[in-house]
Specification:
6 helices, mainly alpha, 3-stranded antiparallel beta sheet, single chain
Length: about 180
C-alpha cells in the first residue's frame, strides 16, 4: 500500500512539475530529439567505409556528402518541426527574446549586420549551400540556447534559426522568422 502510494505521489509530482513548467518540458523534449538525431548520425557514420585521415578537401567533402546521403535516406520523411516542434519553437522564441532584451538587442543587431547577410530559403535535409557564408551566431544568443553536441550547431540564415549538422553539412531543422 505504501509503495503504491509512493508511486502515485512521484508520478503526480512529475506530472505537476511538467504542467507548471512547460519551458522545462520543451527543453527536455528538444534535448531528447537532438540526442536521437546524433545517435542516428553516429551510427550511420560508423557504417561508412573508413577513410584515412586526410587534409585533401575533395576526400573530406566526399565523406561528408556520403554521410549526408545516408542521413537523408534514414530521415526521408523529415520535415520542418521534427526537432523544433511548435512547443520547442515557442520556447526558443522566448529564449531569443530574453537574449535580445535591453541593450543586447542593439549589440546583436549590429553583430548580425557586420556579417555577410544570408538571404536564402533552407529546407530540412538540404545541404547548407557551400557558396553561402556560415554566419556565426552571436555569443549573447548562444548563451541563452541549450548547448549542442559537437556534431550540431546553431546558424542564422536571414531571420531563421537553423540547426545544422556540421559533420554532414545538413539542415537538420529550422525555425523561420525568429530574428528581427
Amino acid at each position: 500500500m505504501v509503495t503504491s502510494l509512493a508511486v502515485v505521489l512521484v508520478s503526480w509530482c512529475a506530472f505537476a512539475q511538467d504542467s507548471v513548467n512547460p519551458q522545462a518540458t520543451a527543453l527536455r523534449d528538444f534535448e531528447k530529439r537532438v540526442s536521437d538525431y546524433v545517435s542516428l548520425q553516429r551510427n550511420l557514420a560508423k557504417a561508412l567505409p573508413r577513410t584515412k585521415q586526410t587534409t585533401e578537401p575533395e576526400t573530406i567533402l566526399d565523406g561528408q556528402r556520403e554521410l549526408a546521403q545516408k542521413i537523408r535516406e534514414a530521415r526521408s520523411k523529415a520535415q520542418q518541426g521534427d526537432i523544433f516542434t511548435p512547443q520547442i519553437a515557442k520556447e526558443f522564441r522566448r529564449l531569443l527574446g530574453l537574449a535580445m532584451a535591453g541593450e543586447n538587442d542593439a549589440h546583436i543587431k549590429k553583430s548580425l549586420e557586420h556579417a555577410e547577410p544570408v538571404r536564402l530559403t533552407l529546407h530540412v535535409n538540404q545541404a547548407y549551400p557551400p557558396s553561402i557564408p556560415l554566419q556565426s551566431t552571436p555569443p549573447t544568443i548562444l548563451m541563452n540556447l541549450p548547448r549542442l553536441p559537437p556534431e550540431l550547431e546553431y546558424r542564422i540564415a536571414g531571420r531563421a534559426l537553423v540547426l545544422r549538422d556540421a559533420t554532414a553539412n545538413l539542415v537538420v531543422d529550422l525555425i523561420p522568422d525568429t530574428l528581427p
